[in-house]
Amino acid sequence: MTFFAPFTIPFIVGAGIMFFVLAWKYISWLRGLPKDDLKLILRGIPTTATLRSVWEVIRESLLHVRIFRVNPVLGYMHTSLAFGWFLLIAVGWIEVVAYLGSEFVPLQGHVFFKYFAAGKIANHIAFFDFAMDLLLAIVLSGVLLAWFKRLRSKAMGMRRTTKHTTGDRIALSFLWFVFPLRLAAESITAAIYGGGGFLTGSIGKALHNTLGTAVLENLYEPSWWLYSCALGGFFIALPFSRYMHIFTEIPLIFLRNYKLRPTHKESTYDNFEVQACSRCGICIDPCQLQSELGINNVQSVYFLRDRRYNMLSLSVANDCLMCGRCEAKCPVGINLNTLRLNSRDAMRNIPDERRYGYLRGLDRSEGSGRVGYFAGCMTLLTPKTLNAMERIFESAGEEVWWADRNGGVCCGRPLKLSGETDSAHKMMAYNTELFRKHGITTLVTSCPICLRVFREDYDLDGIEVLHHSEYIARLINEGRLRLSGGKGTFTYHDPCELGRGCGIYDAPREVIEAVGTLMEAEHNRRDSLCCGSSLANTVINDSQQLKIAASLTAELDATGAETIVTSCPLCKRAIARCAADRVRDLSEIVADAITK
Amino acid sequence: MKKRVAIIGGGVAGMQTALRLKRTGGIEPVIIEREEELGGKVRNWHVLFPTFTPAGEVLGALRSEVAAAGIEVLTGEEAEEFTDRSVKLRSERTIECDAVALCSGFTLFDATLKEEYGYGIYDNVYTSADLERMFSEGRVAMADGSAPRRIAFLHCVGSRDEKVCQRHCSKVCCITGVKQAIEMKRLFPTADVFNFYMDIRMFGPGYEELYREAQQRYNIHFVRGRISEASPMMDGRVQIKSEDTLTGRPLRMSVDMLVLLIGMRANDENGRFADKAGLTLAQSGFMQSRDLFLGNTESPRPGIFYAGAVTAPKSIGETLNEGFTAADRIAEYLGVK
């Protein structure tokens, strides 16, 4: 059997270009990694991380378990295409071995086996005819669903789907044509030479009966040419389009298991994350900028696309609440917020050395105690929380060192969020030194924004950092706070920085239940809405912020609870704009319930 | 037969409108007032800018004229909803009428919404309304009873502030701040008085002159910059943080009293009234006049008229003038000359 025909050239050229570009990209990204990252990889390879990665590749790159979790219909669509195609290749390979044994067969020989084997095989193995047709049918059902999704995304459980670039549309069209063209070519082959299963065989018979051999003979070569062109076209487009994710997710999974992460500075590692984005658009629906304000060019899918093609603008990079709702849904698990932050850093980080002279020698703290309390700028602007914390500390008999009650230095997170990373680090260094100087062992803050930066960016070994919700819950559990329970009904708003940011969902709920009855809002915990006043967004205006706050407040009000509780001073102020008399910080309801 | 006009609100706007309508001879006005007596917000004011005229003089004159004219007044009654031909009261009573004048004024901004200034949380933080009450009671002092030595006034609390959804300028607080600062200086001549402002808007007759006098004669300091936050001190005083935006320097100051010049915001019931009567609200939440030039006291619907601060923040003088204008328009509408 020979394995060459002119029509295979488009396929061979396409596949060659694709593998060359992929290799070139991956090698240059790996070579650009910082030394520490390379060490992590080398150290990780001989560990179980490698095995775990293989398992994860099977689960995520082939079976797409995470997409199934987000939306079963989308999961089927994607799995039928990707896993179906993979099986077509794998089973096709076995088929070739079953017919030809150990004979060497080049790549195109496998891909176009039906063509090369046509009329040369005496006894068809029924199993393969059936299996290959079944797989093709499954893949085609996925293509049909994909067409349908383009027409009506809502029916597929997505209110909105991605608006694609021209390049993506070209690649998409090639992909959509690959399988119908394969069906046509194989059916025509079966019509002339026999063979084929329930799908290609039956269509072949029907063609044979309606068109006759002469017409089919004329269609035979062109049909294989078209199939080969579709494949070759798709392969050439792949590394430059969204389909780059097919291969890129695999090294990403390995690198991630070797503990590589994006940081506040851009690195070539980021390319693995950026190009692993399939532009599925699952991040669009959870975005409140889209659902409340109709802004539809800034979501993570568009941010990553713009960054990848070097057309990212500050107005896109900055127009994000960083609430993390999309990150929680991303089927590839891309660190969307960190990537956006390091883009901002790359575009905005211009430290002003003279501005931070005042930090030297500054110390307005007061009191002494092993427990330090850091109010943060926003708690100083919501003094009811500060007063409540004072009462709680007093009632629990805690001696407190007040870091910033008389004014202090910002935790640095707002600057970090705006991309001014180096300036932020100046403040972080100042506060770290201040905490160390006063010898505290526990640091309590009532601001989740401060909490997150303390936990993620500060080096506070030996100092336990607690959010006031965790600290109050601990006081209650230890019996150090006496509260009169059963008073009133409360609903709770999970602040983004506290919930999705720091994973604290239970402590505030425990505290509320010690005071009264908790009534959950429709979106809660990992799925909770953003208040819209996020410091991370420097683009939307005040009335747009208010619109987001209003929709959140409406949802919280729908619970019928008497009081809205949150545990972030910024969220509280946002909600207060719509429900001034009904919103309170967690500490306020606790202070009110203290019995002695 | 006499025409009947329902006047919602018995403040200066409502009384002035009623008086003018009554004088036509062909119209019988009825004033619906939520409180137990006529007078509205002016009842809580001590003296009026820019002349330091006692508020009681203005109010006393209007009240006695209303009484002398024999105008029907329903006190302790609140309008629930209305159309041009009837007003439904909260007490389930309905007043039939031939036209309605909405003179329900404004609501004072709730200073607790600006939590960062500590109103209602710390001692020695007051609003301009609190200060008027203290002037009326004749006892102005710190919470511990001592005389203040340093006083800060903060302009634009609840005005021109998107963060509390009040974008409009309340117009009268600037001159109120100047007036109250002078009153404080008269009471406590050795005290330092500071006014923190964004812009000083002296639009009325004699206002600019009073502003100049405050600086030159009373040595009151005007600092361009909004106070960002206030915090309590151990001795009960208040520490404020601000920026002097003319010198570009941040400043921190301890004061004995912080006075918040609270703005005028739209009444909550405006929305309900508008829904029921088919009227429209301005973006600020105040009622929208038919047009700002030739139909200032008319609503978009025939038979419904406005006077005073129900359409926008106004001074007392402007409100009194609108009472006349609205009454004339109503008389014209009812065909009474």
Number of domains of chain B: 2
- Output the strand order for the largest sheet of chain A: 2-1-3-4
The average pLDDT of chain A is 92
**How many domains, in number, for the residues of chain A?**
4
SSE topology:
The complex is a heterodimer of chains A (596) and B (337).
Chain A lengths: L8 H23 L3 H10 L3 H16 L1 H6 L1 H29 L6 H5 L1 H5 L8 H26 L14 H28 L6 H12 L1 H25 L7 H13 L11 H6 L13 H6 L6 H9 L5 H5 L6 H5 L6 H13 L22 E4 L1 H5 L2 H14 L3 E3 L10 H5 L3 H17 L4 E4 L2 H9 L7 E4 H10 L11 E5 L5 H4 L3 H10 L1 E2 L23 H16 L5 E4 L2 H8 L6 E3 H8 L3
Helix pairs in contact in A: 1-11, 3-12, 5-8, 8-9, 9-10, 9-11, 15-18, 20-29, 24-26, 26-29
Chain B lengths: L2 E6 L3 H12 L3 E7 L13 E2 L4 E2 H15 L2 E4 L3 E4 L3 E4 L4 E3 L2 E4 L4 E2 L16 E3 H10 L12 E8 L15 H15 L4 E6 L9 H10 L4 E4 L4 E4 L5 E7 L4 E7 L1 E6 L1 E2 L3 H9 L26 E3 L9 H19 L3
Parallel strand pairs in B: 1-2, 1-9, 2-5, 9-20, 11-18, 12-13, 12-18, 13-14
Antiparallel strand pairs in B: 3-4, 6-7, 7-8, 10-19, 15-16, 16-17
Helix pairs in contact in B: 1-2, 1-7, 4-5
